[in-house]
Amino acid sequence: MTMLDDPRMSTPNVAPKKGFKLSQLIYDTRYRSITIQVIAMILVVLGLYWLVNNTIQNLSALGKDFDFGFLSQPAGYDINQRLVEYTSQSTHGRAAFVGILNTMLVAFLGCVLATFLGVIAGVLRLSKNWIVSRLMAVYVEGFRNVPLLLWIIAIFALMTESMPQPREFKVGGDASMMLADSVAVTNRGVYVPGIVFENGFLASPVMNWVILGVILIVSLFVIRIVRRRADVVQESTGVRPTTWYQQLALLIVPVGVVMFLMGAQLQYPYIKGFNFTDGIHLRNSLIALWLALSLYTGAFIAEIVRAGILAISKGQSEAAFALGLRPNRTMNLVILPQAMRVIIPPLISQYLNLTKNSSLAIAVGYMDVRSTLGGITINQTGRELEGMLLMAAFYLALSLAISGVMNIYNNRTQLQER
Amino acid sequence: MKKSVFLGALTIAGLAAGAAAAGTLDDVKARGTLNCGVTTGLTGFAVPDANGVWGGFDVGVCRAVAAAVLGDPMAVEFVTTTGQTRFTALASGEIDLLARNTTWTFSRDVDLKFEFVGVNYYDGQGFMVPRDLGVSSAKDLDGATVCIQTGTTTELNLADYFRSNNISYEPVPIETNAEAQQQYLAGACDVYTTDASGLAATRATFEAPGDHVLLPEIVSKEPLGPLVRHGDNEWADVARWTLNALITAEELGVTSANIAELSAGTNNPEINRLLGTEGELGAMLGLDADWAMKAIMAGGNYGELFEKNIGENTPIGLARGLNAMWTEGGLIYSPPFR
Question: Can the keyword Signal be found in this entry's annotation (chain B) (predicted)?
Fold first, then answer.
C-alpha cells in the first residue's frame, strides 16, 4: 500500500468514497428529511389501510355490503317542501335531490341576507353616532356568542307558539291577513302571494321560471354593455350620457313582456279546509333556519367588514374629504372598494360555514339533504356508510364550488400590480 | 372499534385480521350493566321519574333482561334514542338491546340485519285531533297538516294511507315525541299520528286530555317488540326467552307476589322448569338456574307490567285488547318452556 492510496492523504474537499451506511439515514442531513417523509408516508398508508380494513371487517361482521342500489328504490315517504316534482313513490335518489335543492335554497337565501345584514352592521358599527354603534355592537356580540342551534330553535318556537293558527283566519276568527289580505302569518309559516302562469311556454312551472331567469341574465348582460359604452363616452368627452332609463327599461321590459305572454297572474293565498291554499308557503322551518343562519353569520360578516374598513389607512378618507366627496360617497367609492380586498377571503369561509351549518335544519324539521338522504333514507334502508359518504361528497362539492366562484371574484378585486 | 383489529392490521398487514367479537352475553356479564336503548320519553313505555329512575312497559323488558343476566334489575344503562338514531345505536354496538316501541317489519329484520325477539305490544297506527276540529274520520283529513316522527314505519304508512285514499296532507317531520306534543298543542299541526298506544300515552300527559280524540281508523299493523343485532343467536335467545318467561308467567299465574312461594317447588312441572327448580333451562342459555325467577321478580309478569304501566287503571288507560293472553282471546302467546 503506497502513501497515495491511503484515503487519509486525499485532499479534504473531496468527499471520502465510503460505502453507504444505514445510520446515515438518520444522522446525515442529506437523507434525514427523505427518511422522515418515507416513514410518515408509511404511517399514513397504514392508517388508511387500517381504516378501510376496519370498515370492511365491521361491515362483513354486520353482514352488510356496500351498494348504492338503494338510490333507485322507491322512497315511500313524503317531503313537505319540494322545489321539483316528488311523490312518495319517487326514488331515494330523487328524495336526496329534493333535499339538495332545499339545502341550496336556504344556503343561497342565507348568504344573501347575511351579507346584507353584515355589511350594514359592520359599517354602522363604525358610526360616530353612539347609539347606533352600540346597538350594532349588541347585535354582533349577541348573535356571535350564542350557539346557532339556540337561535334556530328560538325563532322556530317564537313562530310556532305566538302566531295564530290558520283556522283563526276563518270567518269569525281572531286573526286577519296583512297587506290588503295578501299575506298571512300563521304558526305554520308565512303565506305570500305567488305568481302562476296561465299559459306557460312549458308544462313545468320550474322550467318557466328558468326561462325567465335566462332572460333576466341576458338583460343584465346588455345593461353592462350599455354601461361600458357610457364609460367610453365619459372618458372621451367628459360628459356621461344619461342611461338610467335605458337600463331600467332593459331590466323590466323583456321580463315583463314574457311574463305577460305566459299569462302571469298573482295568486293570493286563501284559507280552505285546514290550511291556506295557493300562494307560496314559506314554512316555519325555512324561515327559522334562514333568519337564524343569516343573523348569526351576519354578525361574523359585520366584524369582517369592520376589520376591512379599519384596514384602509385614514389618509384615504381624508384625501376623499379633501376632494369634496360626501361621507357616503367616500364610503362607496373609496373605502369599500379597497376594503373588499381584505374582506373577501374571510367572507368566503363565512359562506362555507353558513352552507354547512344549514345541516342544523334537522332541529326544526327542514327537509334538507341531511334530513332526506342523511336522515330518513338512511334510517329506512340501513345504508349509513353509503348515505354519509354521499352527503360528505355533496357538501364537499358544494363548498368547493362556492369557494371556487368566490375566488374568481376575489382575483378580480385584488390589487392589480402595474 | 376493536383495538385487537388495529394491532392485528399493523403486525400482519395484508392478512385478514379476523378478531371475532366476543358474544354480547359475555360482554354484558363482563361489563356488569346492560345497555338498553329506549325512547327519549314516552309516558307509560319509557320515562324517567322525578328521581331520574327509568320506568315503563318497555323499560320493564330491559330490567327483566338485566335481572336474568346479571341478577340485578337496576344494572341497566339506559340510552335514549330517537326514531332516527335507534338502529345505528344498535348496529354499532352502543346498545345491547333496543326496547323502543319498534315495529317488526320485513326490511328491518332482513335488510337492516336485526333480530326481533318477539312482540310485547300489538299496536296499530292511529290519528289524534283536537275535538273542536270536528273531524270524525281520517278520511276527512284532506289538506291537513300532520305531525309525524321521522324514520318510523308510521311515516311510510301515512304516505301510503293518504295516497290510497287520494287525499293530500302536509307532513311536519319531527324527531321526538316531546317535540311532536309541543307542535301539536301549539296547533302547528292539525293531526298527530303514531302508534295508537303512543297517542294514548301522549294524550294522558295533556292538561285537558278530553279535548282530543283518537280517530276510529287504525291504518296499519304495528307489532312492537324488543330487538337485538342479527347474528348473535345466544344473546337473541336470552332476550327472546326472557320476554317469553314474562308471558308464560302470566299464563301460569306466576306473579311477583307468589313467586317466592312457588319457587320452593310446586307440582306443576312447567312452573318448576320456568323457575329453575327442575331441569337445566338456565344453564342451556348460559344463565343461572333461577334466571326467569329474577326476571319475573324485576317488575312482575307480562300482565303485571301491562297493568302497572299502561293498563286501564293508569292515566293512559289502554285495554288489553289484542294484547290479552291467547287464553283470553288475545295474541300474547309464548312457546312452551320445555
Answer: yes
